[in-house]
């Protein structure tokens, strides 16, 4: 596995990736609306194929992960991408790394907490507000759980 900066991935490949894995290139979360192909980030490659991708933004001394996808589970892809962003965040002078996920995403909540992130805030009914901008967000998520709230997780670096 090789980790490379997203600036070395074509816009077309990034657009295709986000359409395939997120339904569109737009990410709508409590912290803002983002066009993912335009964000900073890294891709994990294996045999020239993207097997993982992470995007982030820097805001006021902090970095926020906007998206994280690992197409191969339990092989260290997601952890390697998080580590790379954390390294970059420290280089940029960020004091913390945060991420927002939805209440149904139990797998993500476990993943981030195992890597030192802590739940800091719950944004009640945030997903309904996000659906006003991105109506294709599903109503029901993992494990049949209604997708309603967002949770902010944060790690000091």
What can you see in these coordinates?
- The protein is α+β, with helices and mostly antiparallel strands.
- It has a single domain, classed as Gcn5-related N-acetyltransferase (GNAT) (Aminopeptidase, 3-Layer(aba) Sandwich).
- The protein is 28% helix and 38% strand.
- It contains four helices and nine strands; from the N terminus they run βαβββββαβαβαβ.
- The model has no long low-confidence stretch (mean pLDDT 95).
- Residues 1-140 form the N-acetyltransferase domain.
- Keywords: Transferase.
- One of its GO terms (molecular function) is acyltransferase activity, transferring groups other than amino-acyl groups.
- This is GNAT family N-acetyltransferase.
List keywords for this structure.
157 residues; single chain; transferase; Acyl_CoA_acyltransferase; alpha+beta; GNAT family N-acetyltransferase; acyltransferase activity, transferring groups other than amino-acyl groups; 4 helices; Aminopeptidase; 9 strands
């Amino acid at each position: 596995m090789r980790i490379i900066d997203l600036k070395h991935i074509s816009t077309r490949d990034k657009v295709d990736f986000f359409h395939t894995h997120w339904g569109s290139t737009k990410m709508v979360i409590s912290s803002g609306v983002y066009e993912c192909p335009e964000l900073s980030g890294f891709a994990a490659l294996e045999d020239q194929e993207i097997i993982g991708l992470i995007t982030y933004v820097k805001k006021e001394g902090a970095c926020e992960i906007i998206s994280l996808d690992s197409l191969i589970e339990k092989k260290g892809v997601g952890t390697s991408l998080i580590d790379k962003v954390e390294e970059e965040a420290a280089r940029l002078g960020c004091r913390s790394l945060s991420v927002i996920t939805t209440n149904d995403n139990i797998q993500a909540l476990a993943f981030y907490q195992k890597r030192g992130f802590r739940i800091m805030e719950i944004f009640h009914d945030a997903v309904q507000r996000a659906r006003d901008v991105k109506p294709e967000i599903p109503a029901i998520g993992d494990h049949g759980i209604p997708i309603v709230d967002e949770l902010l997780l944060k790690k000091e670096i």
